[in-house]
Write a structure and sequence with these properties.
- The protein is an alpha/beta fold.
- 45% of the residues lie in helices and 15% in strands.
- The chain contains 9 helices and 7 strands.
- It has helices spanning 19-30, 42-52, 69-83, 106-134, 147-150, 156-176, 197-200, 203-211, 225-232, and strands spanning 10-14, 34-39, 59-63, 88-91, 138-143, 181-188, 243-246.
- The protein has a 7-stranded parallel β-sheet with strand order 3-2-1-4-5-6-7, sandwiched between helices.
- It is globular.
């Protein structure tokens, strides 16, 4: 038995139009899963779905804004209509606004919390309800961040949202463990994605952060394929309520 196999498993990955979400989706498909990929950029989703499904895998794009409740309902409904069940959920969609805390917009803060926390709770709740009815458990994974452990600069909304997700993950794991639903977090370190453009454009900051990485490099979307497969598969059947830091050793320095 291959405990890492996802053949016959179906699920959802949000924030899958690019970056880490796309890397996770690629790993899940490679392991045999059927998935719905979701994001706001419909054109890019269509391209990704065609690429991921090139070997015959079942990959369905769904253009959604996770901040819109009806879009989350539509995402769950599409997944059930397409596959008949939901075995895993990866809540990866998120946003960040950069500004020093003393001038950071409260409206932007609220927007970050709505996208990064509220939408995650609602989608996890909807998928957990499906998993409970199915009666065979499931896996829900929240994308956290190393900022839950070391803090950051000029991203108060983002830092607060990721701290909230870390605590939410523990509560969901405690509440839903009795149904066989595992809830964990993946916490990326500094990765080469669009979200980190602001840091990469500050050479002194970039060099300092790189110097703290035990592996001596920034992460890439490909680095998240394996962790995603592990947490979605039966290989992690006794893992819940924990966070897997995928940071190249950043926190060890």
């Amino acid at each position: 038995m291959n405990r890492f196999s996802l053949h016959g498993k179906k699920g959802i990955v949000t924030g899958a139009s690019r970056g880490l979400g796309l890397g996770m989706a690629a790993g899940l498909v490679e392991a045999g899963a059927s998935i719905v990929i979701a994001a706001r950029n419909g054109e890019r989703l269509e391209e990704n779905a065609r690429s991921l499904a090139a070997d015959g895998s079942s990959v369905i794009p769904c253009q959604v804004d996770v901040a819109v409740d009806n879009d989350l309902d539509r995402l769950v409904d599409l997944t059930l209509a397409s596959f008949g069940s939901i075995d895993f959920l990866f809540c990866n969609a998120g946003i960040v606004y950069r500004d020093s805390s003393e001038i950071h917009s409260v409206d932007k803060f609220d927007q970050v919390m709505r996208v990064n926390v509220r939408s995650v709770f609602l989608l996890a709740q909807k998928c957990a309800s499906v998993m409970i009815e199915q009666g065979r458990g499931g896996s829900i994974v929240l994308t956290e961040s190393v900022v839950t452990e070391h803090g950051s600069r000029a991203v108060p909304g983002y830092s607060a949202s990721k701290g909230a997700l870390h605590s939410l993950m523990h509560t969901l794991a405690n509440d839903w463990g009795k149904y066989g639903i595992r809830v964990n977090g993946i916490a990326p370190g500094f990765c080469d994605t669009d979200m980190t453009e602001g840091v990469k454009n500050a050479p002194e900051r970039y060099d300092y952060l790189t110097s703290r990485m035990a592996l001596g490099r920034w992460g890439t979307p490909d680095d998240f394929a394996g962790p995603a497969v592990f947490l979605a598969s039966d290989a992690s059947s006794y893992v819940t309520g924990t966070t897997l830091f995928v940071d190249g050793g950043f926190l060890s320095m």
